[in-house]
Design brief:
The chain is an alpha/beta fold and 212 residues long. It has eight helices and five strands, in the order E-H-E-H-H-E-H-H-E-H-H-E-H. A five-stranded parallel beta sheet has the order 2-3-1-4-5, sandwiched between helices.
């Protein structure tokens, strides 16, 4: 049971099909069981404006979208989410659980699309008012296993980019983890769902003890 009233900003990252959304749900429920009322946000999306951007980003019909357009739309959605929800809720000491945040742009648009990483870091910082998650859980899984988990008849524009693309994204995530080691935690996505959840919970408890 937590005793500190200070909230924590937690993000979950990983390639498509890694199982992060399952872990998000488990953590949300665990926090509720411990008397907390966490705020769940997803990316892209999370506000009225951001959801409209999400629809544009993920439509399979928008196959002509350039990599730069994709990156700018992603960060535009994130900027609105940060201003409208994340900043106010952080001020209220709420637990914020983000199903993707700024590292997704670094991995997908830099690693996957080949855009300049340093520029994307600066763009992200601008969009998020220089706010970083306190903890980032990267659920690591090989792209072949991840693809087998995804229903092929319901792929969005980014999910349908293929294994080669997802491999680049995964490699980029691993590089990003080295850039931000203080908050990044690499979790074995091939472990059991319960073991992954237990590891995430233990890391969160240790973090709370350190800052208390």
């Amino acid at each position: 049971m937590f005793t500190s009233k200070t909230g924590v900003f937690i993000s979950f990252e990983g390639i498509d099909g890694c199982g992060k959304s399952t872990q998000v749900d488990l953590l949300i429920n665990k926090l509720k069981d411990n008397g907390k009322n966490p705020v769940l946000v997803r990316e892209p999306g999370g506000t009225g404006i951001s959801e409209e951007i999400r629809d544009t980003l993920l439509k399979t019909q928008n196959s002509l979208m350039s990599s730069r357009t994709e990156a700018l739309l992603m960060t535009a959605s994130r900027a609105q989410l940060t201003k409208e929800i994340i900043i106010p809720e952080l001020a209220n000491n709420r637990y914020i659980i983000a199903d993707r945040f700024k590292d997704s742009t670094l991995a997908y648009q830099s690693g996957g699309r080949g855009l300049n990483l340093e520029f994307l870091i600066k763009l992200n910082n601008f969009a998020t008012y220089d706010i970083d998650p306190d903890l980032t859980f990267f659920i690591d899984i090989d792209p072949v296993s991840a693809e087998q988990r995804i229903k092929s008849n319901s792929l969005d524009r980014i999910e349908s980019a293929g294994i080669k693309f997802q491999t680049k994204v995964r490699e980029s995530y691993l590089k990003i983890a080295k850039l931000f080691p203080a908050r990044f935690h690499i979790i074995d996505g091939m472990d059991t769902i319960q073991n992954i959840h237990n590891s995430i919970w233990d890391i969160l408890i240790n973090y709370k003890n350190e800052i208390s």
